[in-house]
Amino acid sequence: MRSSVASCRWEDGSQALLLSQRCRREDLVADARDGLWSSWELPDLREGRVKAISDSDGVSYPWYGNTTETVTLVGPTNKISRFSVSMNDNFYPSVTWAVPVSNSNVPLLTRIKRDQSFTTWLVAMNTTTKEKIILQTIKWRMRVDIEVDPMQLLGQRARLVGRTQQEQPRILSRMEPIPPNALVKPNANDAQVLMWRPKRGQPIVVIPPK
């Protein structure tokens, strides 16, 4: 994702232009046989306690990263500047073939579904006063639905049954405010938990949040 901004005039102090991304929804479900399933979840998001969670790298709060995602200008300046910032977000979830709460390695995975929604902001911030100005708001979503048959030969075990093309990112005509809790820890990777939800009984936390 790349964004450029022209005609920015900085009057004083040190300024930064940054990309900040927040996860608004996350569902990663792995179905096993007989209706059993596990899922990566964000409890605070799922239960409505927060509206969004930071998708920062966990180091550059509140920004997505600090390489191509940021540009710093030192003012005052007396001319118009043009520059760009960019980000590249990749999905690489881990899904077990077997039931995650069992000692058995028998492959029982039958389906993988993923549905994630994000809001990304392009923000100018005065690094001295911490004042932020939102320049662009972008929304995007990633949905995947895959059927799995672990008994098939290698290369034939998975079949895409969901959409073959993803929705394109949308640049909003009106700026959307950043939820305050999404500017601070934890980030999405540290807040997520792996749950096992049996047909009967209480859900089990397999991997707790960091």
List keywords for this structure.
210 residues, mainly beta, two-stranded antiparallel sheet
Mean pLDDT: 81
Helical residue percent? under 10%
CA-atom Rg in angstroms: 21 Å
Largest sheet: 10 strands, antiparallel
Helix/strand-derived category reads mainly beta
C-alpha termini separation: 28 Å
Low-confidence stretches: 1-16
SSE order in H/E notation? Answer: EEEHEEEEEEEHEE
Task: Tell me the total number of β-strands.
Answer: 12
Percent in strands: 35-45%
Shape: elongated
Helical region count?
2
Concise account of the structure shown:
4% of the residues lie in helices and 44% in strands.
Overview of this protein structure:
With 210 residues, the chain is mainly beta. It is built from two helices and twelve strands, in the order βββαβββββββαββ. The strands form two sheets. Strands 2, 3, 4, 5, 7, 8, 9, 10, 11 and 12 form a ten-stranded antiparallel beta sheet that branches.
Topology readout:
Elements: E1 2-8, E2 14-32, E3 37-41, H1 43-46, E4 53-54, E5 70-74, E6 81-86, E7 109-126, E8 132-148, E9 158-160, E10 170-171, H2 188-191, E11 193-197, E12 204-207
Antiparallel strand pairs: 1-6, 2-3, 2-4, 2-5, 2-7, 3-11, 7-8, 8-9, 8-10, 11-12
